[in-house]
Amino acid sequence: MKFIYKYAFISLAFLFSCSEDFLNLAPISNRSVEGFYNSEQELNQALMGVYDGLQSTQTSVYAMLMKEQRSDNTFQQSLLYNFHSIIHFNESPENTQLYPAWSDLFESIYRCNIFLEKIEGVSFEDDQLKEQMKAETKVIRALFYFDLVRYFGGVPIVTKPLSITESLQYERNSIDEVYAAIIADLEEAAATLPQTYSSQDVGRITSLAAKALLGKVYLTKSGYPLNSGEWEKAKVLLEEVINSGQFEFFPQYSDVFNIANDNGKQYVFWVQFNSDAQGEGNPIPRIQAANNIDRNDPVLGVSSGGSPLSPIVSQDFINSFEEGDVRLAHTVQMQWLQNDGVMFYTPFSKKFVSGNSGPQNNWDINWPVIRYTDVLMMYAEVLNEIAYTPNGKAFEILNQVRERAGLDPKAANDVPDQGSFRNWVLNERRFEFAFEHQRWHDLVRTDQGLTVMKNFLMEYGLDGNVTKEKYLYPIPSRVIQTNPIITQNPGFQ
């Protein structure tokens, strides 16, 4: 049974009291909260609330919009709920999709902070378990800050529970300072956590998950805008994950997303879901499916139904696949049956439609934060940045990915220099990780977002909207109105 559902669920409203200050963080004055963290068992239950933040922040509508739909993988002329302005690069601080991203992530950080404060006052029979639980929480907090810094640039660094008055005194930290806080949490956790767990705890964050995330942090930090060049640090961490022997490169692409392989050896850091527990299923297969799709047709329908928020796969994305690439057929459904029997030809992503949906139309399948192929491809990218080596290990990795996709390998004459290899990596990542909420961040960190999105949006007359300032989203106006110390700043800070 998945770890996240091992313990009885308790109301998060009971554990975490939230208020409408600028970080959406709560004062620690609620008697229920104060009276809860008294034993090892209660702390185990509280840790479920910390993990629960992974579900809401990594598979939310705003995450899909801000990480995937911002890119060239999707396009829609108009959408409900202020979606079109983000897709068209003309969003303002008043956009209603930005505030949930800020508030949900900071609320989840609050859960981490109060847990870390309360656990210090509780005696454990096993001190090692206590340190492990603290380390798990710090990895989760680091991921939340990693999302925030990539969404908004410099944000306030908060590592303890705050009262409303205290929260209003916090200013934005610089992007360098945010990364320093992320790295500190991940380094400590990587040195503390175990590599593996017993079967009853499968799904808990391991030291290898912490190292993989830290490797991705260094990779991202080494790109735009900081260009810190910490490729060697990323290399060491990614090598440790690869050489651990804990993971496997699946020979069939579709097997990576098969419900039968949940928590299998492609798993490095995945968000756990359980459709049998109320509100704990994965919403992504339903959100990505076309609205009014037939629930009963096993080929042209989706059993959970779809959503009006479903992203439309761009024709540019479809046309960019090489002939014979099996990833296209697994990722995109080209036609679908509406529940009234009418056939539609608007493509949508069916990548995570595996298994069955639960009673709330959400799914049991887990969601990848970092899968093993990502570790391998990041490692290939790092090797190329350190030194371009024709037909070396980096070539071997990307060709392994291509061959699994049904494509011919590339040789040095196809990719003759370091710049060509960079483009190959970015292109291969587009197809490999499509609709896994990676494309927009890949475009930004490689500083290709401006060129790629200008060219992509030119067809729609929107290329003039794309500037490097749009690599970041504006701080939501509700945040600034509540706390004027938080100010808008153009570009990365």
TrEMBL record:
Ranges of residues in domain SusD-like N-terminal: 21-219
The cellular component terms of Gene Ontology attached to this UniProt record, alphabetical and capped at eight, are: cell outer membrane
Primary site of residence:
membrane
Give every RagB/SusD domain span. Answer: 345-492
The record's keywords, sorted A to Z, are:
Cell outer membrane, Membrane, Signal
Pfam families noted in UniProt: SusD-like_3, SusD_RagB
Q: Which domain of life is it from?
A: Bacteria
Compartments in which it is found: Cell outer membrane
Q: Which family, according to UniProt?
A: Belongs to the SusD family.
- Please give the name of this protein: Membrane protein
Species of the source: Cyclobacterium qasimii
